[in-house]
Here is the input.
Amino acid sequence: MSVHYCGYEWLKRAYKLDLDSPNPVSKVGGAKSPDSRIFRSEYQPEDTLAGHLLFALKHENMNLGILKALFNACDKKELEQWISENPQGQQTRRTWFLYEWLTGKELNLPDADTKFRYVDALDEKSYYTADKINSPRHKVRNNMPGVPTFCWLVRKTAAMKAFDAKQLHKQMADAYSTHPMIGRAEAFLLTKDSQSSFEIEKEKFDNRAVRWMKTVRAFMGSRLDDAKLFEMQKQLVSNPDNGWRADFGWIGDRLPDATPLPEHISAHPESLKELMDAWLKAYSLMFERHPVAAATALAYGFIIIHPFTDGNGRIHRFILHQLGKVPVSSELLESIDDYIASLKKLSAPILDRSEWTVTADYNVELINDTTELYRYADATEQAEFIYKCIEQFVTHRLPLELEYLSAFDEAKRIIDDAHDMPDKDLTLLVNLCVQNEGVLSNKKRKLFEQLSDDNIAFAEKTVKEAFTDYFRMKG
Here is the structure.
């Protein structure tokens, strides 16, 4: 049976659009495969711009990168004719709006009839969106989760809807907001999150990390702007950029002769101001929207652009925490392979389309213009992964930490009542016992020469009893 490509794939081939798509290829006929969707013959559209554009909008995931390239390549008179013949159609008005929104150019069409009912630019049953702003010209409600020059999408998949139904953020608030230990737990977890974020980068937790924690606390409740981002990088690295990165950037390894082996190519330094201005506008649009969708799209968009020479990863994880309302660096560290895979899934298509050469100082220099590749992406898989991390935090890490603090206070109180000790020594004793499942190791026994063997045995028994639930929960 012959194969007839449909939707985006037909448009790519017909208009010679050299772009990748994360979507499965749609076709009528041919063999089934993991990277294709087979439609029955009655779905086959006319081989026209309008036919396949309508098919894509109705049956495929939104791909803003392909749409923008298509709008710049096609004959706009053909679009104008299609829209004029179907002025009330939802998909024609969406197309009209998206054309003018993405390209910044107007089609030669009169404003939509005021009697038409408004239609959403993005279907809110299928996508996480921004607040609606009416566009009277098209009779379309602009709910795009970004701006024309930076807009990453997250779809409402079955997995995302299942996570939404669990109401993890509400669970956390209902269960723990009035817990007597919650303030201390939040402070401890913020420290642990910062430690994990540094560990992911294989960086020492030193005085810079302490400065970073203070910066995190200072900026967590306020909206970011370029000045705050510059200050964050300044607190992280010894040689800050004092602005956006001025040189080319890449992540990867090197051959023995120092030749770069990039796994990710950062956005061109000359594109950074415009890209980051757009990113900041999208950040403001989504600041109080769906926490996981917004956190994922903005945090992953940030790290893929890579606007700084150093410090991008830790700022990326700050954004995940700030917008996602949960510190997840410890979960990311525990699932480091999945985390790295989630990053590579977005960076690999950019690397494949980046043409670069090695400079005299062994840096990477981009030859082609790749700016468009950073503007649009589908971050749904990444959002599902981040949701899993948030669930792990809410259902395991936070209750575990609260139990730890309660048990810690109880053990300290009982031991202190029996053996009056300096607080720092008592704290150390309990910590060392907990680290070894309630037993003080022989190697650490010499730290407490002032205590008899009976005193140590009492402390061990007390810790085991106080931490029974903690050890059980920890597994």
